[in-house]
Structures are given as structure tokens and as C-alpha cells.
Automatic annotation (TrEMBL):
It holds the Pfam family Glyoxalase. PROSITE patterns: VOC. The lineage of its organism: Bacteria, Bacillati, Actinomycetota, Actinomycetes, Mycobacteriales. Residues 8-123, 141-259 form the VOC domain. It comes from the Bacteria. SUPFAM superfamilies: Glyoxalase/Bleomycin resistance protein/Dihydroxybiphenyl dioxygenase. GO terms for molecular function: biphenyl-2,3-diol 1,2-dioxygenase activity. The keyword Oxidoreductase applies. This is Manganese-dependent 2,3-dihydroxybiphenyl 1,2-dioxygenase. Its EC number is 1.13.11.39.
Length: 312
């Protein structure tokens, strides 16, 4: 196993009280496709992605992150990572084995330092997917996941030490200090970011669209459909990606984005960006002002699933 056992982001699994309403939002409004269903479960795919699903929804009394799933290159890498984590006293939820989820594969689960369930897998069957055509304002793939952390420095250290993530950039504020760490596992600027927040929770899940035109069409479709917009449209400096943030029916923030930066890892040096400068938050100057109200909408509810593994 290399020092970077993780290859890519696979999917984000969410538990919600109203499964039907959440599924309708993600499929009828957001543009995902229901690929598989089971009792109280819905597996939603992005039409342009080879992953079996990018969002899994589970009906539950408590809203929570069920798990964040990443890919590994081989089953041997999965085994080696599980052995290394156990030796470092990381608490395993399950031992490596065959996965009973769409696409199968070989993987295991563990808790991160704050109690989120993380899954790493290899040999998951590739889904039959297609090229997203010009003008189609639906997600191509799950771009990245951002989590809130009450201990962001420790959480960053956990993912760097144990999973081989590397720092791409940092957002800071003159009064509040370092506020967000952008972490990568491949050439994409970030697959995971960690935001300083009052509690552990989901900050947002981001979905890549085909291009600028499709991103703007999707943003407009959300606005016309009455979906509550939090922030955008605009273009960030860190990652150079576009952004439009909306709330799903359960108060989770979801983002349409495109053109996330692909970096040259051999020459890249992390930046320390002061996001009190307007051009850092939004290079275009088209988004509504980033203020305390906007920021608080992404704090989300405290995650009720910390150190409690999902039942499936």
C-alpha cells in the first residue's frame, strides 16, 4: 500500500425522517436517478458517473450522516489500510469483507476522530453511465463533501495521517483564524474539506455539472422551482470552481458546481486565503454577500450519528 491508500470519493449516505420527500427532491428536482431501492433505502446515481450511486438515503428518526465512502485501488490496499488503522487505535466498525450493497466490492468501515462513519472499498462494479450532453443541467458526478468540525485541526490531521489526504489550500479570517482546510486525494483540488463550526455536521455536498452553461441552467432551474438559495451564483478562488448553494428538504446544504481545478501535484503549494476579501469568496462578484447569516445556514443540525454506526 502506498502512502495514499484512497483513490477517490465514492458516495455520501444520509439518513432522513422523510425518505419520500428527500428522494423526490434529489431525483425530481436536483437531477439524480434512483438506481436501486430496498426497504427504507434509496440509492441515487449521477448519470455521468461510473459509481453505482453517489447518494444513499435511509429512512430514520434522526437526520444524520450515515457514512462517507471512498475508493481504494485494490482489495490488498483495503486490507493493508484496515490493519494500519487498527494498529493506530482507530476504531473499526467492520472488518474487511464483501459488501452487500449495489455493485458489491470489498471494503470495511471505521470511525474518524469525531465519530463519523467512513467506508473504504475496492472492486466495486462500474455502473453503466453516459456522457452528459450540452444543455443538460444534471449532475455528472459527486464532486466533494465538506464537513463541519468543532476540532478542524485534529480532523485535518486524522485524514492526512491515516488516509493520505494532502492539503491544497486554507481559508482564514483576520479575527477568527484558519476556518477551512481543502484536502485532496488525487489531482482534483479537493474531494473533502473541513470547516470550523460549532459542532460536527454536514456543511455541504457538491455536485459537478458539465460546464458553465449547464451550471447556470441548473442554478436557474432551482431558483424558478422555489428551492431556497443560500449563496451564489459565483466563483470561488480556492479551487477556482463555481458555486450555487441550496437547501434540501431536511436543511442540508447542496451545491451545484463546475470547473473544479485540476492541479499539478508536483508543483502545487498551498495558499492561505483571507476570505474577508470579497474576491476570495467570489471572484465574479455576482453572489450575495458572505455574512454570518449565510455561514450559519451551513452549520446544519448537530450530527446525531457520531460513534453510532448506521444499521446498514
Amino acid at each position: 500500500m502506498t502512502d495514499r491508500p484512497i483513490t477517490h470519493l465514492r458516495h455520501l449516505d444520509l439518513a432522513v425522517p422523510d425518505l419520500a420527500r428527500q428522494q423526490e427532491f434529489f431525483t425530481g428536482t436536483w437531477g439524480l436517478t434512483t438506481e436501486h431501492t430496498d426497504s427504507g433505502l434509496a440509492f441515487l446515481a449521477a448519470e455521468g458517473s461510473p459509481e453505482q450511486y453517489v447518494i444513499r438515503l435511509r429512512r430514520a428518526e434522526d437526520k444524520r450522516i450515515d457514512l462517507i465512502a471512498f475508493g481504494a485501488a485494490t482489495p490488498a490496499d483495503v486490507d493493508a489500510l484496515a490493519t494500519r488503522l487498527a494498529a493506530d487505535d482507530v476504531r473499526l466498525v467492520s472488518e474487511p469483507g464483501t459488501l452487500d450493497t449495489p455493485g458489491g466490492g470489498y471494503g470495511f468501515r471505521f470511525f474518524d476522530n469525531e465519530g463519523r462513519t467512513v467506508e473504504v472499498s475496492a472492486d466495486v462494479a462500474v455502473r453503466a453511465h453516459r456522457r452528459i450532453e450540452a444543455g443538460e443541467s444534471i449532475p455528472v458526478r459527486l464532486s466533494h463533501v465538506v464537513i463541519n468540525s468543532a476540532a478542524p485541526e485534529q480532523t485535518r490531521a486524522f485524514y492526512e495521517r491515516h488516509l493520505g489526504f494532502r492539503l491544497s489550500d486554507i481559508l482564514m479570517h483576520p479575527r477568527m483564524g484558519e476556518m477551512m482546510y481543502f484536502l485532496r486525494i488525487n489531482r482534483w483540488h479537493h474531494s473533502l474539506a473541513i470547516a470550523r463550526g460549532p459542532h460536527a455536521s454536514l456543511h455541504h455536498a457538491s455536485f459537478e455539472l458539465r460546464g458553465i452553461d449547464e451550471y447556470l441552467r441548473g442554478t436557474g432551474r432551482m431558483l424558478r422551482g422555489g428551492v431556497e438559495k443560500i449563496w451564489g451564483p459565483g466563483r470561488h478562488l480556492a479551487g477556482n470552481n463555481t458555486f450555487s448553494y441550496f437547501l434540501d428538504p431536511h436543511g442540508n446544504t447542496v451545491e451545484y458546481t463546475t470547473e473544479l481545478e485540476l492541479i499539478d501535484e508536483d508543483s502545487w503549494h498551498p495558499h492561505l486565503y483571507d476570505f474577508s476579501r470579497p474576491e476570495v469568496s467570489d471572484q465574479w462578484g455576482t453572489a450575495n454577500e458572505m455574512n454570518e447569516f449565510v455561514a450559519s445556514r451551513s452549520f446544519n443540525d448537530p450530527d446525531r450519528g457520531l460513534f453510532v454506526a448506521p444499521p446498514v
